[in-house]
Amino acid sequence: MMNRVSANEIPAPAPRSTEPSQLATELVERLKYRIGKDPKVAKPHDWLTAAILVVRDRITDKWMDSTRRTYATGAKRVYYLSLEFLIGRLMRDAMTNIGLMDEMREALASLGVDIDIIAELEPDAALGNGGLGRLAACFIESMATTDVPAYGYGIRYVHGLFRQQIADGWQVELPETWLAHGNPWEFERRESSYEIGFGGAVETLDLGDGKQRFVWKPAERVIATAYDTPAVGWRAKRVNTLRLWAANPIDPILLDAFNAGDHIGALRDSNKAESLTRVLYPADATPAGQELRLRQEFFFSSASLQDILRRHLQQYPDFSSLPDAVAIQLNDTHPAVSVAELVRLLTDMHGLDFDTAWDLTRRTFGYTNHTLLPEALESWPVPLFERLLPRHMQIVYAINAKILIEARKERGADDQSVRNISLIEEGGERRVRMGNLAFVGSHSVNGVSALHTELMKETVFADLHRLYPDRINNKTNGITPRRWLMQCNPGLFNLIRESIGDAFEDDAEQLKALDRFAGDSAFRERFAAIKRENKVRLANLVQARIGVRLDPGAMFDIQIKRIHEYKRQLLNIVEAVALYDQIRSRPELDWVPRVKLFAGKAAPSYHNAKLIIKLANDVARVINNDPAVRGLLKVVFVPNYNVSLAEVMVPAADLSEQISTAGMEASGTGNMKFALNGALTIGTLDGANVEMRDHVGAENIVIFGMTADEVARVRAEGHNPRAIIEGSPELSQALSAISSGVFSPDDRGRFAGLIDGLYNHDWFMVAADFDAYAKAQRDVDALWSDTAAWNSKAVLNTARMGWFSSDRTIRQYATEIWGA
Fold first, then answer.
1. Which of 673, 693, 695, 808 is catalytic?
2. Which range is least confidently modeled, 245-254, 423-432, 487-496, 653-662?
3. CB of 185 within 8 A of CB of 90?
4. Identified catalytic residue from 134, 482, 562, 808
5. What does the domain layout of the chain look like in residue ranges?
6. 40 annotated active-site
7. Residue 561: active-site member
C-alpha cells in the first residue's frame, strides 16, 4: 500500500528563474513535450500556448503557496457567486502582475517570436455580457491583490454570449467559439464533481417526537465538474481561484437506444446536460428559455454551495463556525436561489434544524444589488419554480412565513407592506421574487454607488428597508488600474511613472500627485501625444474591421456599453442627426470635427435595442457618405464589443458618453475607465457619475439633464413629450427625418414605431433631456477648441480617479461586510 506523504513533508520548490535565457529554454520544452511541435514548424498559436504554459507554471507555484497559507492561518474565505466573469484575455494581465512582461518579451524575441502578435491571438473568454461580468473580473483580481482569500464561482460557458456580426446594419448573433481549441489556463478538477437535481418529488419521513425529515428525489440529475483558472493579484501577493462549472450527464450515451437505431434519442441526456453550460443568458421570451435560465442559476449555485460546505468540513468539525469562516457574496439576483439551497443542504443533507440553518444562512450571505429596474429583479412563475425545484419551493414558503409573521406581529407592517415584503408576488401571476429572497437571506445588502443605494431604500426595497433598517449599505464600484491603465494604455502609464514615481502602482490614490502637472504645458503636450497615438491605433482597427477612415485629429466621442433604452444610445444618435442637419444648414460656422463611435450588444430578444443598432448603422451610412458634411462628422458602430475591443477604445476616447436616464444606472464602470485614461465625461447625475463629479471637480465634467428626483416626479405627474418635441426645432426636425425614412429609404417605416414611442410616452426621457444634451455638446465643442484647457481637464481626470480603484472597493467589502 502506498504511504501518503503529508504536505508539510514536501519541500517547497525553488523559485523558478525569470532569466530570459531560461524562459526561452522552457518555451522550447513546452513546444516539444506539451504541444508536440518542433520550434522550426511551430505556428503563432503554438507559441501562444507555450508562453501561457510557462507563465502558468510560475503562477501555479504561488497559487499553491496561497492555498497553503489560507489553510495554515485559518483565514476567512470569500466566495463570490456570479453568473458572469468577463475576464478578457489573460496573458498580458498575468505577466504584468507577476512582473514577467519584459523578460518574456525578450525570451520570445530570442526565438524569433513577437509577443504582441501572439498575444492578439488569445481569445476573449466569453463569460460575460457587460458591466456586471467585468466588475466580477476586476473584483477577483483585486481580492488577490489585497490578499483576501477568495474563490469566484461561475459557469464554464462553451459559447457564452454571442459573437456579434453586423449584416446590412442589423445585429446577427453567432456562436462565440472561444473554447474551440481548449483553454491552456484552466485545470479540470474531476474530484470536485457534484450531483445536481431537477424536478421529481419530496418525501416526508417521520422521525418521531414530532420531527420530520424531507427527502428530495429528483427526476433528473446531472454532474457539475469544476474547472479552475488561477486569478493572480498585483505583484503576485496572492493567487486565488476562479472555479467554473461544466455540466455532464450521468450516462453520456444510452447504449440500448443507440444500438436500437435511435441515435438522437441515445444522446438526449447528454444534450440536455450540456445545454446548461452552452450559452450565457438564453433568450427567456419562451417558457423553455425561462426554464433553462432557472436551471443554469440553480446548477451553478448548488454546485458552488456543495463545494463550499465540503471544503468547510475538511477544516472544521461542524457548521456552527460557517459564518465566521465563510462569506458568500451574491452578485445580483442570478445566484439568489442559493439562499434556499443552503438551507436545504444544511437541513436535508446535514441534519440541522430549520431555525439553525436559517440563522447560519443569513449570517453567511451578502447580496449586491445592481439594478433598480423591476423587470431585472428576477422573478419566476411559481408553477415553474415548484416543478423544477419542489423542495426549494417548500423552503421559500417556510422562509416567507417566518419573515411575514415577523413583519406583521413584531414590526406592525400593514397589508400593503406585507405584500411588498413577501417572497411571493400575488398580483396577477404568482411569482417567486428572487430579489426579496436575496435580501431577507443576507445580513448585508449593498448598492454600488451612493445614489443607487439611497434609491434602493426609497424604491424597490423600501418596505424591506423599513423592516431591516441596518441591512442596506453602499459599496461604490471600482476598476482594476492594472488592466485599465497599466496594460491598456502603456504610454500613459509610463508617462505617469516617469513624472510622479511608482507609488501609484500599489495605491491608485497616489495618482493625485499628477494634479500639479495639469498646468504644465510640456506635460500636457506629451499627454496629448499619447492620446493621439491611441486614437491612431483605434482608427487603424476601425479601418481594418469596417473600412471607415477616421481622422485622429477629430474629437473621438465614444459610447460603449450594452444596448438598452435606459442607456440612451438613441439620444446620442438623435443628437448626431440634429448636428448633421446643422452642419449642412450652417456651413459657414467653425464646426468641431467629431467622430461618434458606438459599440455594444443587444439581447437577442430585445427588439428596440436591435432596432437602435440598425438606426446607428443607417445614420452612419448616410452621414459618412454625404460630401456636404466635409468629414466634420462621422458615425461608426464597431461590431462585437468585448474586453479586448474596450482596451483599444477606452484609451482613445476624448469624450465619454455616460448619458443614462437619471436614477436607472446603478453605477457604471465604463465611466471610470474612460476618465482614468484622460477622457472628459458628458453625462447625467446618475450612478457613479455623481461621485465622479465630486472627485474630479464639477468644472472637469460636463453634466446635463434631469436628476433622478426630477425624473421620478415627471413620471408620477405625467409629462407631454409631444409638446416638448414640437417646441424644439432641432429635435423635431431630427425625429421627423428618422421617422419618415430619410435614413431608411429601403423601408421608410422602419423606425416609425421607435420614434412614436418618444412622442407618446418617452419613458426614458430622451425628448425631455434632448435640448440640455445638445447644449452640453456645444459646450463641449467650445471647450475642445481651447486645447490647453481641454488637456488640463483631461490630466485632472486621470489624476483624480484613483479612489475608483476596485482595490478600495474590495477593502471596504472585506472590512465592512465579509470580516475577511
1. 673
2. 245-254
3. yes
4. 562
5. 20-135+146-316, 337-475, 549-790
6. no
7. yes
pTM above 0.70, yes or no: yes
CATH number 3.30.420.40 is the correct assignment for the domain at 20-135+146-316: no
According to DSSP, the β-strands at 633-637 and 594-599 are parallel
pLDDT digits (tens, 9 = 90+) for 435-476: 999 999 999 999 999 999 999 999 999 999 999 999 999 999
Residue 1 binned pLDDT confidence (cut-offs 50, 70, 90):
very low
For residue range 272-302, list pLDDT tens digits in order: 888 999 999 887 778 999 999 999 999 999 9
Confirm if 425 and 431 have CB atoms less than 8 A apart.
Answer: yes
Give a three-class secondary structure readout of 329-394: EEECCCCCCHHHHHHHHHHHHCCCCHHHHHHHHHHHEEEECCCCCHHHCCEEEHHHHHHHCHHHHH
Catalytic annotation, pick one of 62, 92, 561, 614 = 561
Active site residue 562: yes
Give 207-254 pLDDT, tens digit per residue.
Answer: 888 788 999 999 999 999 999 999 999 999 999 999 999 999 987 655
Catalytic residue (one of 567, 601, 614, 808)? 567
Active site residue 669: yes
Residues in Cβ contact with 2 at an 8 Å cutoff, skipping those fewer than 6 apart? none
Query: How much is the pLDDT for 259?
Result: 65
The distance from CA 345 to its chain's CA centroid, rounded to whole angstroms, is: 29
How many whole angstroms separate alpha carbon 437 and alpha carbon 449? 22
Q: What is the chain's Cα-based Rg?
A: 27
549-790: what fold? Rossmann fold (3.40.50)
* Whether residue 610 lies in the annotated active site: no
pLDDT at 2: 45
Q: Which tens digit of pLDDT belongs to each residue from 395-406?
A: 999 999 999 999
Secondary structure class of 717 (helix, strand, coil): helix
Dump pLDDT digits (tens) for 738-787: 999 999 999 999 999 999 999 999 999 999 999 999 999 999 999 999 99
Mean pLDDT, residues 533-559:
98
User: Which residues, other chains included, contact 512 with Cβ-Cβ below 8 Å and sequence gap of 6+?
Assistant: 799, 800, 802
- Choosing from 295, 370, 524, 793, the catalytic residue is 370
d(CA 318, CA 357): 12
Sign of CA dihedral 227, 231, 236, 238: negative
Helices 20-30 & 44-73 angle (0-180, nearest 10): 110
Check if 20-135+146-316 and 549-790 are the same fold. yes
745: number of Cβ within 10 Å:
10
